[in-house]
Amino acid sequence: MSYRIPHRCPVCSHELIITKLACTHCPTKVEGEFSSCKFCRLPTEQLEFVEAFIRCRGNIKEVEKVLGISYPTVRSRLDSVIEALGYGPDKAGIHTPEESERRQEILIALERGELSAQEAARQLRGRR
Q1: CA-CA distance, 69 to 84, in Å (whole number)?
Q2: Global pTM?
Q3: Domains plus CATH for the chain?
Q4: Is 32 helix (H, G, I), strand (E, B) or coil?
C-alpha cells in the first residue's frame, strides 16, 4: 500500500524533509536532504480540485459540473490553491510558505465551522 508523504511533524508541526530514497527495482538507496514539490504539500482536497481543474482544461463551468459545486465555490477553491502554492492577491503575488500555510489553516478552520466568517476575516487581515 502506498501512502502520501507527511509534510508536517506530528509532534511539533514543523516541516519534515525527505532523507532517504529507495529504488523499487534494485537495492539502491540514496540518503540526503530532499524537498518535495509545492503540489505534493497540498492537502488531498486541493489536489483533487487541481486534478479536476486540469482535466477540465481550466473551464470553470466544466469544473462546476464535474465536482457538483457552484461557480463561487470553484473560484474560492482556486484562490485557496493559488494561495497555498505561495501566490496571493498582493501586488508581489508571493507569500512566504509559512504565511501561505497559516492562511490555509484559517480557511480550513472556517470551512469546518471552527471560526466565524468575521473571525477568519480578522485573522486574514491581521496576517497581511
Answers
A1: 20
A2: 0.55
A3: 39-126 (1.10.10)
A4: strand
